[in-house]
Recover the amino acids of this structure.
């Protein structure tokens, strides 16, 4: 009998279990508490990169009070932002979006030191599938699942307590006042340190997550809205352009190969004094001129490439209006120059939209593609002779070759195995998991392959020296950070980016029998130059004048 009683009691207890679970899931949570919980979660999991940068500037032992205050300030800012965005119909949408944004952006900030400003967002939007896949890693998927999708799912299942209009208004007002009071309490005791922090360490505060990405998305949206008021027709440039007359009638037609490099920094080029001979083939080529102090227009491909061929200098260039403006390739094309753009990167970023464009990112056109889908830059030299329109009279020709170059983070994929001079090599796209030297080794090996590519390009040009006035120009679009101060890749805002992302190689091969003044080149290689020199140099070489570039500096002078 007693045994039956125990059994019946167990049945009763089991029957109550589902009710307990239902009671747990049906529990309603005050929206303010839910916001606070998510903010605490994001401050503690999505801002490791931010706190790492802060501690590097403000060591814990000497700044414990300021660091506690800064943590409170970050919490207060998020709390205030979320309170302004979260209302009964929007709270779950906003919180889930913030959690997912923080998970994705936090990974790249922690792993590569990426700052998600508007230029980085534009660069991300213009990244093709192959480039995007190159950034994927198991740790990325794990982090997004653990710190993004899982907490977002939990947020979606929580029941929000419904408040009366009056209660909701009072609670919103109180929480807003409390968040502002918290900000004041954090700022006031350390006013002098915050004055220095906000003025001198802009790069550090750019690592806050998801505040910086959200701000950048909003700014990008407003910029796009502003673009709607721009003219639908192309803004013309160099409308007064004209050819300089050949008085003697002896000038040979011009032939230039312009190589748009990818992600090469100047201080890793052997020709510039780097301790490693990363360009041994060019070092043995005669008539090579390597500029020692060249600055890029931007720190990303999406920004720099259009700027390189723009009529605006770096200070005046506006990436948002670049697509509405003609560039120097348009001018050359109108003046009868045969302009051809071959691309082994993601695209020309709009620069070659109105000239001949050939895509070499596919095995259908590029004969040097490997089984993993990686197409080599040297494939762009295939059929070079056909570009000169053989069988017709020699014509002024500009051939632009847009490299894959040193595109990261998978530097080890950017070159064939026989170019692996420096070992060991970081064999993953998760650079923070490798030691700095193995990352540098892979990067330098990729430069050696660019050296091979440029050498092959020069050899392609040499047979045409008698019939054409030939020259080759190589310029990288931007540099690259390789772990200095825990920063990898590129794309930081120009004003705060390190020189590693802004200083680029400029290398010119100019044989003695062309029209370029060798003495001017020898002088200029030690002078500061920049991407601003590209447009006037192209016009100068092809003998085209325009008031828009009349006073602009060039890389060299002509003997004509």
């Amino acid at each position: 009998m007693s045994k039956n009683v125990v059994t019946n009691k167990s049945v009763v207890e089991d029957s109550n279990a589902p009710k307990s679970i239902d009671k747990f899931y049906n529990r309603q949570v005050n929206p303010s508490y839910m916001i606070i919980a998510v903010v605490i979660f994001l401050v503690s999991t999505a801002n490791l990169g931010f706190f790492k940068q802060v501690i590097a500037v403000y060591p814990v032992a000497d700044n414990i009070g300021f660091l506690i205050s800064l943590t409170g300030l970050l919490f207060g800012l998020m709390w205030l932002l979320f309170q302004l965005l979260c209302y009964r119909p929007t709270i779950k949408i906003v919180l889930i979006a913030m959690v997912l944004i923080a998970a994705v952006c936090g990974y790249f900030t922690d792993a590569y030191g990426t700052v998600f400003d508007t230029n980085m967002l534009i660069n991300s939007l213009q990244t093709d599938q192959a480039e995007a896949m190159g950034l994927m890693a198991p740790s990325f998927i794990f982090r997004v699942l653990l710190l993004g999708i899982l907490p977002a799912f939990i947020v979606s299942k929580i029941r929000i307590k419904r408040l009366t209009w009056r209660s909701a208004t009072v609670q919103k007002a109180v929480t807003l006042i409390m968040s502002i009071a918290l900000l004041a309490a954090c700022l006031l005791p350390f006013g002098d340190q915050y004055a220095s922090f906000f003025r001198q360490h802009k790069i550090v505060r750019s690592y806050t997550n998801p505040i910086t990405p959200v701000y950048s998305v909003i700014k990008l949206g407003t910029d796009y809205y502003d673009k709607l008021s721009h003219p639908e027709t192309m803004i013309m440039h160099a409308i007064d352009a004209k050819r300089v007359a050949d008085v003697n009638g002896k000038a040979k037609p011009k032939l230039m190969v312009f190589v748009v490099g990818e992600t090469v920094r100047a201080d890793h080029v052997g020709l510039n004094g780097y301790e490693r001979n990363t360009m041994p083939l060019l070092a043995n080529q005669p008539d090579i001129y390597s500029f020692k102090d060249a600055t890029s227009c931007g720190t990303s491909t999406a920004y720099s490439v259009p700027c390189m061929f723009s009529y605006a200098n770096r200070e005046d260039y506006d990436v948002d209006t670049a697509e509405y403006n003609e560039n120097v390739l348009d001018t050359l094309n109108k003046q009868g120059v045969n302009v051809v753009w071959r691309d082994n990167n993601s695209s020309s970023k709009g620069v070659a939209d109105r000239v001949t464009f050939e895509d070499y990112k596919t095995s259908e056109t590029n004969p040097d593609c490997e089984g993993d889908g990686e197409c080599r830059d040297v494939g762009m030299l295939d059929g070079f002779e056909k570009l000169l329109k053989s069988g017709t009279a020699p014509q002024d020709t500009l051939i632009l070759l847009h490299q894959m170059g040193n595109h990261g983070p998978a530097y080890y994929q950017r070159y064939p195995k026989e170019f692996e001079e420096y070992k060991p090599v970081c064999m993953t796209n998760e650079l923070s998991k490798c030691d700095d030297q193995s990352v540098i080794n892979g990067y330098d090996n990729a430069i050696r392959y660019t050296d091979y590519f440029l050498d092959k390009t020069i050899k392609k040009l040499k047979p045409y020296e008698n019939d054409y006035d030939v020259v080759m120009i190589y310029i990288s679009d931007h540099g690259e950070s390789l772990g200095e101060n825990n920063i990898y890749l590129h794309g930081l805002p120009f004003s705060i980016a390190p020189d590693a992302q802004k200083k680029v190689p400029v290398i010119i091969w100019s044989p003695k029998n062309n029209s370029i003044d060798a003495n001017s080149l020898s002088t200029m290689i030690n002078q500061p130059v920049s991407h601003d020199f590209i447009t006037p140099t192209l016009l100068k070489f092809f003998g085209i004048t325009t008031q828009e570039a009349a006073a602009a500096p060039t890389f060299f002078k002509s003997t004509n």
